[in-house]
Amino acid sequence: MFGPAKGSHFGVRAEAECPGGGGVCHPAAGTKAGPAAVRPMGGRTDTMWRFRCKAKDGTYVLQELSSRTRVRELQGQIAAITGIAPDCQRILVGYPPECLDLSNGDAMLGDLPIQSAGDMLIVEEDQARPHASPAFTRHGAPGYVRDTVPVLTRTVVPADNSCLFTSVYYVVEGGVLNPACAPEMRRLIARIVASDPDFYSEAILGKTNQEYCEWIKRDDTWGGAIEISILSKFYQCEICVVDTQTVRIDRFGEDAGYSKRVLLIYDGVHYDPLQRNFPDPDTPPLTIFSSNDDIVLVQALELADEAKRKRQFTDVNRFTLRCMICQKGLTGQAEAREHAKETGHTNFGEV
């Protein structure tokens, strides 16, 4: 679990719209690996490569490769994550996709028509070739002893206007579901905002500093980008929010150099925490990940894409709401904001 951060608190930058609130956040980063690392190689530098690898059962990230990596090493990595033996692999790249020549296992990746970053490798099993023996399966272990691949799943928290705070608490505490934490987290945010009225001005908050502090402490208000940014700094971790409507990830604290990240999923109205479950029932779920773990970002996007295909999201411009104070029916967040501005009513329920 995380302890609170020492030092100053964190504000948001006015760069991009972000789900779930009236604030702003860093632009969505998706699953880009960022600048490649550079590693010395015998008196010269050799840029480390990362690729996305799409197979029948999902998309993976291949790391620790370079222009000097041998073809057989690439095939070994692919075999370990897909279970497709090297002799049965067909690797396609480019558009339209063309099959790479894998006949020379000692050839270097730098000699192949692939780019160091951004290329998607499509891996297929060549059905014309003999199938791999049962001893060669995913992760290089025999089928009868290998573990099932850990999966990323959503944990549903109550839809009580405080789902953001409950979800953040859940992930930073390592999987503790405690809806009663919300009032304290709201007061924490209010204290941080009140401590820096120059930064947290009306231009940032959409209301005066004092009005915001009173507003966020109420249990009928929703958290969003501003609150996520503050909590990212307080817990000293990157908070990634994957949106099921747009299938993108917004990463709060991405540029702060944090070593850990946690993930939430957002459907346009509601936040839930994400965790990695393991096949061994004695292994607790994992909610805190390394900030270098690109695979978890790919898994999060796959989860969001699946939810979108199943229409498990709320279109915030078209969904219907009811004011729980005066019972007026409203359509979309724009009407809800206007109603709140005119009446001061901020307690809405989805119809």
UniProtKB/TrEMBL annotation:
Localisation: Cytoplasm
Function: Hydrolase that can remove conjugated ubiquitin from proteins and participates in endoplasmic reticulum-associated degradation (ERAD) for misfolded lumenal proteins. May act by triming the ubiquitin chain on the associated substrate to facilitate their threading through the VCP/p97 pore. Ubiquitin moieties on substrates may present a steric impediment to the threading process when the substrate is transferred to the VCP pore and threaded through VCP's axial channel. Mediates deubiquitination of 'Lys-27'-, 'Lys-29'- and 'Lys-33'-linked polyubiquitin chains.
Residue ranges constituting the OTU domain according to the UniProt record: 152-277
Name of this protein: Ubiquitin thioesterase OTU
Domain of life the protein comes from: Eukaryota
Enzyme class of the recorded protein, top EC level: hydrolase
Keywords: Cytoplasm, Hydrolase, Metal-binding, Protease, Thiol protease, Ubl conjugation pathway, Unfolded protein response, Zinc, Zinc-finger
Assembly and oligomerization: Interacts with VCP; the interaction is direct. Interacts with FAF2/UBXD8. Interacts with DERL1; however interaction is dependent on the UBAX-like region, suggesting that it may be indirect. Interacts with PLAA, UBXN6 and VCP; may form a complex involved in macroautophagy.
Gene Ontology cellular-component terms listed: cytosol; nucleus
